[in-house]
Write a structure and sequence with these properties.
The chain contains 11 helices and 9 strands. The protein is α/β, with parallel strands linked by helices. The radius of gyration is 20 Å and the shape is globular. About 10% of the residues have low confidence.
Length: 319
């Protein structure tokens, strides 16, 4: 066994309100979800951990985290679908809460605050966290029928989500808001975790590189250790094309949403995205940087509302 590693007490790069700033307390997690115990063992430094390259171990850890921190009663996802790293997903939610803050710095809470999660996925992860942490309600959309069925099962299997989350199927593969937002319907924010690779080959190369960096050796084949389907991991043109199309379509819904947002995985995507937002005459654009471990992530937010309209909308959120 190698010399025991000294770990900082708090993961300072995570959002201050995150429930995941301290190291995993496996004793408490196992108490919440006993099935996790089978996957917990000391690592080479003598610290309790799980094998993050074992999909079953990651799934068991996620179930325990969701039960312990977010009171989730039921959470199952289909095999080979994306099993999300929860601390990073929580950071997106907490930073959106900061984006919605009122003039006095208060965070709007309650189910009158509504978000649209574009590509809610089989895990329904953002509605789970957003509803638990802030009481928000959500529309979750997806083009994938299996993901829709899974997200609906999670919504139905959790009493708090039943009345606060609505899952809607997007029938058009190249649409984001059309036929999801009704003509008179408003949401306070949208959020999206785009597929960021341009092809399955790119996704596999990235996975191989990640595993090599973490394990120090080249694996024999690509293993996407968090799972993931085509629509979750790659799309024609990659994230730049995906976000470009989303921005162009968002113009038609500019009066129905306060803040449109999307994660951006690659820093190189920012420059062309700013150009498009200038072209479509977005009135305000913000880039929010987040950090998880060695990785820096970010999301971009834009609106078509005037400063006065933003102020009036924000006032309504706090009333």
């Amino acid at each position: 066994m190698q010399k025991k590693k000294e770990h900082p007490k708090v993961k300072s790069q995570l959002h201050p309100r995150s429930q995941h700033r301290e190291r995993y307390n496996f004793d408490l997690l196992i108490k919440s979800s006993p099935k996790l115990a089978a996957f917990v063992a000391p690592n080479k430094y003598g610290d309790d951990s799980v094998d993050f390259f074992n999909p079953k171990a990651v799934l068991a850890l996620n179930k325990a985290l969701l039960k312990h921190h977010y009171g989730v009663e039921f959470w199952e996802i289909p095999e080979h679908y994306l099993c999300p790293p929860i601390p990073g997903r929580a950071d997106y939610i907490h930073n959106i809460a900061d984006l919605l803050k009122g003039n006095e710095g208060e965070i709007p809470k309650g189910n009158h605050i509504k978000g649209l999660d574009i590509g809610v996925g089989a895990s329904c992860i953002y509605p789970i966290i957003g509803n638990h942490e802030y009481g928000w309600s959500f529309i979750g959309s997806d083009t994938n029928e299996t993901a829709i069925v899974s997200a609906k099962a999670i919504e139905q299997g959790n009493s708090k989500l039943k009345s606060n989350v609505e899952i809607r199927r997007q029938e058009q593969s190249n649409a984001f808001f059309k036929d999801i937002l009704k003509p008179d319907e408003k949401v306070d924010f949208t959020m999206c975790n785009p597929p960021f690779h341009a092809s399955i080959e790119d996704a596999q190369k990235a996975s191989l590189k990640k595993i090599k960096n973490l394990k120090g050796r080249r694996p024999s084949q690509a293993v996407l250790n968090f799972g993931g389907q085509q629509n979750e991991l790659w799309t024609k043109g990659g994230e730049a094309r995906f976000i470009k199309d989303m921005i162009y379509e968002s113009r038609n819904f500019g009066k129905q949403c306060l803040w449109f947002t999307s994660l951006i995985s690659k820093e190189v995507t920012l420059k062309p995205t700013y150009k498009i937002l200038t072209k479509v005459k977005a009135t305000d654009v913000k880039t929010i940087t987040m950090g998880q471990g060695q990785k820096v992530s970010r999301f971009i937010a834009w609106t078509f509302l005037s400063k006065q309209e933003q102020k009036e909308w924000s006032h309504r959120l706090m009333s």
